[in-house]
Amino acid sequence: MEQDPGGHGWLSPVAGGEDCLWYVDKNGSWHPSFDCEFYTFCCGTCHHRYCCRDPLRLITERQQRHCLAFSPKTIAGIASAVVLFIAIVTTIVCCFMCSCCYLYQRRQHLRTPLQAPAAQYPLYPSGPPVYNPTAPPPYVPAQPSYPGA
């Protein structure tokens, strides 16, 4: 409580003019925020708000924000988002780690290029070259002629 500047006693911590913040009623309907006139307060509960002059029914803006932060729907929404995120991350990790999954096989295929045994694909012919009389002659580039040579 604060002391009255005129020295006439103690003032209430709320001097009126408290605003009612937006809220969701018990049916799930959204209600916009509204201002209360001077010397009236935002009264009611987390799910029903109105302006009144009775300080005993007052719901402060801090209490109203607490209603929003810890409402069951808010907690359920945050919890479901966290569970969904964990499920997606777990699925992706499993797909890269499980040998039966397409992403794992694709990653392994890119990591190890085709490696064939040397006996299956020889790099050089296994015997001496064979002469083929019907083959065209090998290409030999023309030699430049130099004048005076």
TrEMBL record:
Domain of life the protein comes from: Eukaryota
Residues of the Shisa N-terminal domain: 17-67
Spans traversing the lipid bilayer: 78-104
Cellular localisation: Membrane
Any one of the GO CC terms: membrane
Keyword S-adenosyl-L-methionine: no
Keywords noted in UniProt: Membrane, Transmembrane, Transmembrane helix
InterPro entries (alphabetical): Shisa, Shisa_N
Keyword Thylakoid: no
Protein name: Shisa family member 4
Source organism: Columba livia (Rock dove)
